[in-house]
């Protein structure tokens, strides 16, 4: 019998829908021991607001992982600074969120957890609390001492990786260098092979400028940066094509020929992915020394404690983490 795996689930921004989703997930039988990292009083209070029965069990990490029954949730406690009003951000709890991420990070690095799945955080309120934070992706990369990681969002039909993550648009062009693009493509190829079992990955690379620069008349990055990297990375073990105009590569006929599209920046790739699959997509950080998946949506403050938040993306993120943990450990 395969041993039961233990996976960390961070509940995210306490005023958002993260706690609601963790409680909803506990109503389904899971194939692994999920350990929610959150304040148990918050989970108790939110379950009451949602009118959902919940039995909370503090995890004993010295014991082998065990499965929860439906309606049960293992938790690792972390204390809120102040009580939470659902839907209302409070910067006093910004450090609580960071603490929960740090506990998950430490537990992944010391193999307490086989993976971490994250519910959404609110980047703004964490910064308001005095902590520079641009996203889980960057937080986990820095904490793991990794110089470069890749954000990829995926449904069963489409994978979109990003050459840059949470950057102001003004900084994007400067951040795309031959060196950074080379690293991004190498990480993506490696992950498609090892974590997704694709022997000869096929990647379509987008241009940065409209119409991929129109032969240099609408921007030169395709000629000076992107194309040379694509040319240099040609091999018998992969198909890398581009630079494609981003507005035409995302059509069904073209996408059939590729395992992933590499977009140059956040809002070039993610609106397409979310239009196609919001609610069923998974955010995966490639290039970390552990497995990290997440939801495809944000904190949805408007839905916290209402019962209207859908847990479909969180369940997909958990299932993806399990598949990855069962198949190939990241290298
Ligand atoms: N993984 C993450 O931590 C993550 C991902 C995306 C955005 N965010 C953060 O979330 C905050 C709010 O972002 P936003 O308002 O742009 O996006 P959002 O995803 O929170 O909300 C966009 C819309 O989708 C709806 N929605 C979101 N999740 C839903 C769900 N599970 N079920 C039903 N409806 C849902 C919301 O009600 C809202 O109408 C920002 O601070 C952003 O940075 C975090
Ligand atoms: N870029 C993500 C999205 O739009 O869904 C989101 O901001 C989460 O990013 P992190 O996983 O880095 O927090």
TrEMBL record:
Its cofactor is Zn(2+); Mg(2+); Co(2+). It catalyses: 4-(phosphooxy)-L-threonine + NAD(+) = 3-amino-2-oxopropyl phosphate + CO2 + NADH. It is found in: Cytoplasm. Signal peptide: none annotated. It holds the Pfam family PdxA. A divalent metal cation binds at residues 166, 211, 266. Binds 1 divalent metal cation per subunit. Can use ions such as Zn(2+), Mg(2+) or Co(2+). Its EC number is 1.1.1.262. This is 4-hydroxythreonine-4-phosphate dehydrogenase. Catalyzes the NAD(P)-dependent oxidation of 4-(phosphooxy)-L-threonine (HTP) into 2-amino-3-oxo-4-(phosphooxy)butyric acid which spontaneously decarboxylates to form 3-amino-2-oxopropyl phosphate (AHAP). Belongs to the PdxA family. It comes from the Bacteria.
């Amino acid at each position: 019998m395969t041993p039961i795996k233990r996976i960390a689930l961070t509940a995210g921004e306490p005023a958002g829908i993260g706690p609601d989703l963790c409680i909803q997930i506990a109503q389904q039988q899971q194939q692994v021991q999920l350990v929610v990292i959150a304040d148990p009083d918050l989970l108790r209070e939110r379950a009451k607001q949602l009118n959902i029965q919940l039995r909370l069990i503090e995890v004993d990490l010295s014991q082998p992982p065990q499965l929860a029954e439906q309606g049960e949730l293992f938790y690792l406690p972390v204390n809120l600074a102040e009580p939470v009003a659902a839907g209302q951000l409070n910067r006093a709890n910004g450090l609580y969120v960071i603490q929960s991420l740090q506990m998950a990070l430490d537990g992944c690095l010391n193999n307490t957890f086989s993976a971490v799945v994250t519910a959404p955080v609110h980047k703004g309120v964490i910064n308001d609390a005095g902590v520079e934070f641009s996203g889980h992706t960057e937080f986990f990369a820095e904490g793991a001492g990794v110089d470069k990681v890749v954000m990829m969002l995926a449904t069963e039909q489409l994978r979109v990786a990003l050459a840059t993550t949470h950057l102001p648009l003004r900084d994007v062009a400067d951040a795309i260098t031959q060196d950074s693009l080379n690293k991004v493509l190498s990480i993506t190829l490696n992950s498609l092979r090892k974590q997704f079992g694709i022997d000869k990955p096929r990647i379509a690379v987008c241009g940065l400028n409209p119409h991929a620069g129109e032969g240099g008349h609408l921007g030169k990055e395709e000629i000076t940066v992107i194309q040379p990297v694509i040319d240099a990375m040609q091999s018998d073990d992969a198909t890398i094509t581009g630079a494609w105009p981003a507005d035409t590569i995302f059509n069904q006929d073209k996408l059939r020929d590729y395992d992933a599209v590499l977009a140059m920046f956040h809002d070039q790739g993610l609106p397409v992915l979310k239009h196609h699959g919001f609610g069923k997509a998974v955010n995966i950080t490639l290039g970390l020394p552990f497995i990290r998946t997440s939801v495809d949506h944000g904190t949805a403050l408007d839905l916290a404690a209402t019962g209207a938040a859908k847990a479909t993306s969180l369940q997909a993120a958990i299932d993806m983490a399990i598949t990855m943990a069962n198949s190939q450990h990241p290298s």
